[in-house]
Amino acid sequence: MSAARPHAPLALVEDVAARIREQIVGGHLRPGAHLSEQALSKALQVSRNSLREVFRQLAAEGLVRHELNRGVFVATPDLSAIIDIYKIRRLIEIPAVSRAYPNHPAIERMEAALALAQSCREKGDWIGVGSADIAFHAAIVALADSSRLSAFFAKIAFELRLVFGIVQTPEHFHAPFIEQNGRIAALLRGGDMPAAAKALEEYLDQAERMVRGAYDRLHPADQAKTVP
Amino acid sequence: MSAARPHAPLALVEDVAARIREQIVGGHLRPGAHLSEQALSKALQVSRNSLREVFRQLAAEGLVRHELNRGVFVATPDLSAIIDIYKIRRLIEIPAVSRAYPNHPAIERMEAALALAQSCREKGDWIGVGSADIAFHAAIVALADSSRLSAFFAKIAFELRLVFGIVQTPEHFHAPFIEQNGRIAALLRGGDMPAAAKALEEYLDQAERMVRGAYDRLHPADQAKTVP
DNA sequence: AAATATCGATTGTTCAACAATATTGCGCCT
DNA sequence: AGGCGCAATATTGTTGAACAATCGATATTT
Question: For B66, which residue in chain A has the nearest alpha carbon?
């Protein structure tokens, strides 16, 4: 719980923000949970003022929602968020793969993420598999060589990890994607961009179906919300 | 200069953030300028702590850059930023137009922005023309019906307005785009999405050339920066 | 039971203080 | 004169306490 890091010259606020981020995407802070200023400032050993700076940053990143006079709450992705996220992933990732340069350095990052996912699977660390999956697709976005686009995807990825938290059986959920990612990487390495793009499309279709399935299982009422 | 708004229940921090944003994109705060906490807190009549919350938010939005122990500075777009921004605009806007639904409500927003641009041109308000141009292309992004994508473009648009600030002769710069935008809107209204996408591509090519030209005129040394 | 008054807890905002770091300016030496 | 080190100064980083404003829940009244 110590906040002061003796020989780390990084800023306190950034550090606390990173720690809260981890708590959120790691599932220790559930979506919708209220982040009390007093409780957190005591737990993390920082002043309320500094904590408020952290909150502003996390709110701008979309990880928490700030309600006036009510405090901040962990963001709660809904069905429209899931739809939106996969729409954006298609828009960004498919052209990134289609137009990728042969032997782009990001391909190595993809293969590294793939190896990490396999090692996590062997250890039964399914949350690690999910993180590696996201790292793999962040590498795909890096094929586009755009720092702003990668930063945007990183933000989307945080929300996605939040969404992953609703999945009840991660072993069943993340396992098939390792193989699909492997196929994408192999096709890219071989220089067959159109085939890689097609494989990526299938991945995204299946991933969205599975996430939406998990969501519907948790919120059975949400489908027919229009016209009660 | 009054900060306290009697009957406006909005948050103070958001208000101050909006005001500083305007100062930046309006050119009153030049790129690279140092934002002193003491000076600004006195000028805007807010405490240093509240101002720091504003800074965190603006930094997360990319409008200012936060350097540890040195304060915050107005972001300074460089050549790579310009290249990156237009790469992203192509990636986002062209598919948005190509895949637009006929008679999408955003088309009305485009036409409204167009009318605003024309009215601003008649009044000689070239900054207004530039803002209307950006509003037009924000409407193009809205064709994709993705709230996250629109928010991302809004962030890019802030940077773009910052870039516009380097243009010396805005009347020469923004004038031709009114006609090009008009052609895009007309083709979209007519349902010819491929032609609209082609016209948009031409717009983006020309806009990038002109912005880069303006930038090179200001920073003649920047081109041959590789291998001195 | 419904509307209302009240109270406690939480957030919103400010201020003053001190520590840590950066910038400035000055004297000093070569 | 010109560069260097060092103290003096200004700025940022962070905290704690204080008070106003608002929200939530409980108790009271009708």
Answer: A11
Residue A53: list chain B partners with CB under 8 A: 52-53, 56
Give the one of B52, B87, B148 whose C-beta lies nearest to A146's C-beta.
B87
pLDDT (mean) for B53-81: 96
Name the minimum distance, in Å, from the CA of B129 to any CA of chain A: 26
Q: Bridge-partner residues for B35, per DSSP?
A: B72
Predicted confidence at residue B7, as pLDDT, reads 40
Cβ pair A207, A63 in contact under 8 A: no
Best of A41, A54, A56 to disrupt the B interface (most B CBs within 10 Å) is A56
Q: What is the pLDDT of residue B26?
A: 85
Q: Is B60 on the interface with A (CB under 8 A)?
A: yes
| Tokens 């950034």 sit on residue | A14
pTM recorded for the entire structure: 0.90
| Listed residue (A189, A201, A101, A186) closest to A143, CA to CA | A101
| Regions in chain A scoring below 50 on pLDDT | 1-9, 224-228
**Six-digit token pair at B95?**
């598919």
Q: Which residue do the tokens 């807010």 mark?
A: B46
A167 is written with which tokens?
């999945």
pLDDT value for B222: 58
pLDDT tens string B183-213: 999 999 999 999 999 999 999 999 999 999 9
Evaluate whether A77 touches A32 at the Cβ level (below 8 Å). Answer: no
Task: Please give the full DSSP string across B58-74, using - where no structure is assigned.
Answer: HHHHTSEEEETTTEEEE
Residues comprising chain A, all counted: 228
- Contact A57/B at CB under 8 A: yes
